[in-house]
Amino acid sequence: MARNKNEEKKERKITVKELKRQSFLLIVSFVVVVYGIIFYYLPLTGWIMAFENYKPKKGLLGSTFVGLDKFKFLFGDDVFIKVIRNTFAMGVINLVTTTVMAVLFAILLNEIRRSWIKKPIQTISYLPHFLSWIVVTSILHVSLSPTGIVNDLLLRFGIINQAINFFAFPKYFWPIVAFANCWKETGWNAIIYLSAITAIDPALYEAASIDGADRLQKIRYITFPGIKPTFLILLLMNVGNVLNAGFEVQYLLGNGLVQSVSQTIDIYVLKWGISQNDYSLGTAAGLFKSAVSIAIILIANSIAKKYSDQRLF
């Protein structure tokens, strides 16, 4: 019994000393937790508006409770069904194109042996990430206008007979959005894949060279398996953002001619929640998007857990 008491006293002393030693980190962690509660969790009480006929003057507690009426209106609205289609389609296209391009770019950049060529290319590639969407969409508008450089090149090479107004045809809108996301984010997304490639044991490449493997075989049998865990984890994290297809690029590039394919859930929320002052309907649309995103993450994680060792939780 005496030994147990002495051991408990020692453990308490060690714990107190450890707490004092880590006091700064504990204070910082406490501040972060408080920040998260205030700015991430307390605002979730606003979801109550989705089940009310919210009136700003009456507030959350004074507004009339309407249950699922707002959700019934959403799914009975043909425009919202098209909005879901647009959001999901652009989200999937953006996910596939940006992921594939980032992996390919990282592998190709890794194959450049001379650092004086590799470093400038890498630096230039991720600079677009720091440009605002206002700048990016302005560049697209100028380049793809009937008098822009794209039409000029297509006319010079005889590919088309007359200039095309790319922003007047719905069929061009999704590819333009995908291209914009790829151009802006490929270099930045490739950084983490480059880090994963550099973590691969160089002895594997040396052994492959001794066995007579060429560059493509090294990429196929060493590089791809080496970055597979990183690829799967990032894919699982990004799958939940499929319905976050974007707001700025669609809002800035969209117009009345392509409205049927340009509107996303975020734009729909802005339209009803702010422009039409129907905060309840905007909240219901946002709540639907959040619920679907959580469901997609859970499903993707369960599939990854079943077929591989990589998972989020």
Tertiary shape: flat
- CATH hierarchy class name of the largest domain: Mainly Alpha
The proportion of residues in beta strands is under 5%
Main sheet properties: 2 strands, antiparallel
Count of distinct structural domains: 2
What is the alpha-carbon Rg in Å? 26 Å
CATH superfamily of the largest domain: MetI-like
Could you characterize what this model shows?
It is built from 15 helices and two strands. The chain has 313 residues and is mainly alpha-helical. The chain folds into two domains: 14-67, no CATH class; 73-307, MetI-like (MetI-like fold). The chain has a two-stranded antiparallel sheet. Helix 14 packs antiparallel against helix 15 (279-307). It starts with a helix and ends in a 6-residue tail after the last helix.
Question: Short summary of the structure?
Answer:
This protein is mostly helical and 313 residues long.
How would the blueprint of this fold be written?
Elements: H1 2-21, H2 23-41, E1 52-53, H3 59-62, E2 64-65, H4 69-75, H5 78-110, H6 115-126, H7 133-144, H8 149-156, H9 173-198, H10 202-210, H11 215-239, H12 248-253, H13 259-262, H14 265-275, H15 279-307
Antiparallel strand pairs: 1-2
Helix pairs in contact: 4-15, 5-9, 5-11, 6-9, 9-11, 11-15, 14-15
Task: Give short descriptive properties of this protein.
313 residues; MetI-like fold; 2 strands; two-stranded antiparallel ribbon; mainly alpha; 2 domains; 1% strand
